[in-house]
Amino acid sequence: MKANAHIKDATIQELQQGYTFAKVDRRFVCLGCHFRTEPGRIYPIGDGLFDAEAAMRSHICEHHQSPLHMLLALDKPWTGLSELQTRLISLFAAGISDSEIAATVNAGSVSTIRNHRFLLREKQKQAKIFLAIAELMEKQSMQASPVSAAVDGGNDAEAKKILLTYFPQGMNGPLSAFPTREKRRLILLRQISTRFTPGRRYTEPEVNSILNAIYHDHVLLRRLLIDYGFLARRADGSEYWRTNSGEEMPSETSPASPADEREEEPMDERKKELIRQYKETPPPMGVFQIKNTVNGKLLLVKALNIPGIMNGRLMELRRGGHRNHELQADWNKYGEDAFVFETLATIKPADYPPEQWPSAVAELLKLWLEQLQPYGEAGYHRQKQ
Q1: pLDDT in tens, the chain (385 residues)
Q2: CB of 156 within 8 A of CB of 163?
């Protein structure tokens, strides 16, 4: 399914619910198709009567199964998921066990399915970090832009005129409309932010309730208040607060760690304990890559001891005796500085009995070969016929 214009502009919350509110024609719009419902109308569905938003939710369940399935139906450039990953996510969401999936889907053993789960969790972690980075980037660029200066340096009489125009019932009343011009928006957003008490923490439903009384598109107001720095929130969306009070996010102190409690232990005892833990801890196991930064070619290597095997391969290349002759030739041609060694993924040894470590690492390698396809011009592997 191709993404429509509404999906491109939707917030995470709107993507998760499967619909948005179009400000232009003031209707709820399904993100998976062009179905729309109009606020104020009652929709007969089956034996019941539904308002516009409930009718939209009913439509999504009937025609798209769920918001999750709607998003999974998007083309790969939008999801970044392979066809197999898309199918597995649908099965994971249905609560089907790894053994059942392995028995019904041509995707390998139970260990392979478990590794797929691991890779998806890694994607989730990376996505969270990227979203945080993107929000911080936008927030800092907004603070550095002359937009805020345009508001701060605006004429008081002009600002008052704009406020009276858009708040015809007074500053505690609703907006008559929401402008498209940025300067006017900022003046209104600053006024709207005064509805929030400095020092108080708000839940998202509380924020939505306050903004709904001001304007029907509370999602737009909430997003802009955050984007322009009038409100701040925790990364998980559990708390919101007004920022122009000069209030900082509370520090979250944690109890003293075991390391802190050991400060008074004799140093030699701590050293012995660290040595014992090191000996009993298995080395990192998983898959690493040797990457040619000149032509982008990759060699993927499985290892039960990533640092040890990585160092061994480096020594082989330096001595000119690596078993992959094409890689060795490029090493000789471009030099050591043109190559990087990077860990791609690891397994948790505690999740497997020791006798299964080799097969778990082999399955992990198979997954990464499938994902990166390091064959031909893309890598130093030869595809099996």
Answers
A1: 555 667 777 888 888 999 988 876 788 999 888 789 998 888 888 878 889 899 999 999 888 888 998 888 888 878 888 888 888 888 888 888 888 888 877 767 888 888 888 888 888 888 888 888 887 886 666 555 444 444 444 567 888 889 999 999 999 999 998 888 878 888 999 999 999 998 899 998 999 999 999 998 888 899 888 878 888 888 777 889 998 533 333 333 333 344 444 444 445 565 555 555 545 567 889 999 999 999 999 999 999 888 888 888 888 898 888 889 999 999 999 999 899 999 999 998 888 888 888 898 999 999 999 999 999 999 999 887 6
A2: no
What is the Cα–Cα distance from 281 to 189, expressed in whole angstroms? 55
Tokens for 337, please give them.
């500085």
- In single-letter form, the type of residue at position 91 comes to L
DSSP 210-275: HHHTT-S-HHHHHHHHHHTTSEEE-TTSS-EEESTT-PPPPP---PPPHHHHGGGS-HHHHHHHHH
Amino acid at 252: E
Overall fold of domain 280-378:
GIY-YIG endonuclease (3.40.1440)
Give dist(CA 63, CA 56) in Å, integer. Answer: 10
- Neighbouring residues of 44: CB distance < 8 A, sequence distance ≥ 6: 50
Residue type, 66: S
Q: By CB neighbour count within 10 A (0-12 exposed, 13-18 middle, 19+ buried), where does 32 fall?
A: buried
Does residue 142 contact residue 149 with C-beta atoms inside 8 Å?
no
The one-letter code for the residue type at 82 is: S
Looking at the chain, which residues constitute the CATH 3.40.1440.10 domain(s)? Answer: 280-378
Question: Around 283, how many Cα atoms within 13 Å sit in the side-chain half-sphere?
Answer: 9
